[in-house]
Design brief:
Strand content: 15-25%
Structural class: alpha/beta
CATH topology of the largest domain: Aminopeptidase
Number of domains: 2
Radius of gyration: 24 Å
Helix content: 40-55%
Strand order of the largest sheet: 1-2-4-3-5-17
Shape: globular
Number of helices: 14
Oligomer: single chain
CATH class of the largest domain: Alpha Beta
Amino acid sequence: MKENLTTFLDEHTQSYADIAKDIWERPQTALNEEYAAKRQSEFLESRGFRINAVKDVPTAFVAEYGSGDPVIGILGEYDALPDMSQKVCTERTPIEAGGPGHACGHNLIGTAGVAAVDAVKELYDKEGFKGTIRYYGCPAEERYSGKILMQKEKVFDDLDIAIIWHPQDITGISRKQYYSGLTMMKVEFSGETGHSVAAKNYGGSALQAANLMVGGINAMREYIWDYHRLHYYMSDTGQTANLLSKSTSVYCETRATDVDVLLKIKERLTEIAEGCAKIAGTDFTIEMEDELYSDKENSVIVEVLKHNLQLLPRPEYTDGEKEFAAKLAETLPEGAEKKVASFYNIDKEQIENHLHMGVVEKDDLIYLPADDAGNVSQQVPFGTFLISLPPVGMPMHCWQMTALAGSSIGTKCMMRAAKVMAGVVYDFLTDEKLVQEAVEEFNI
């Protein structure tokens, strides 16, 4: 029975909390996550999962149980962020000055997936399931590359359903997407070096070309929609004013919620770079990193996620946890909670002690930071959801998040996500029609 999943997860919460805390205490940045990958893979292997390495991606792995169709996968993450080390306290107190920390809760994201597949595996043989359950240990999400590297190794090619979650300041689900797409472009302008006065007739200025490029980027911002973004920075701009720089680079990031728009903006930036080089009399080259695509949400999966989210009771917190959250909320900018609550139409009854207690259902629940899971969503039917962790209005990638990710509040957030995902995997394994509907929608 499906209820047995929740019972199993409740009974084994401490085991999963230990895994998450062990990874939190040993944070490692993108593509260096040896400890997290080993800790999770060894646990799942001890539980009877087959562990498969991913060629050329040493900190990635795939844990698998069962056989045949359908193949249902949970995507996990476990890389930390640099300079986000923090103790579990309400003041900025690094454990290691300048060290990494789990300021995006990836120690929770991955471990919730481990817990979910472990619970479903417990029922697999007892209830005679047919199909394959997988946990994907995915590195380097913060570098936008882990799942793309795994994708190149074709580990998702036979996957029927993919799900993932993320901690956030709200609990929510959307029929559209949470994450925007992202392109990253390096434009390098090459000119002639020499005295900035005497040599100016003998060749173009790379710095001038780069400045023109920045002007073009800023002008282009007027012609894009609110949910699209252009960011940039310059490098190699020179060391002294009386010497022309041989080369100057402009790094551009484009974010858009629609893949076609994303690619159109990239095309336009290429044309701007070409024009700037001609005006300044320089050469230019463009280097592109892998493109991140926005989430392609599958409404069938979204409805199953929504159903399992609604089965969860309101979260319960101890007095100590409420006090901890309240003190962290004091570090927020004035009006941050009210602004977020207004955007998502969250009423006062859904917020207690600054923590979100309800479920936001918004068709345009857009979260502008990019995520490499979007590329997987373009390949297989996909769904994602958010579970509240920090006080409403608090962003990711801050020391406060590191503190929460190592706290008991973080464990409760993780286990709520695990229960949702375990329920979703159960539903797809036991209802072949659901899988067919999700695949049919994806193929339209």
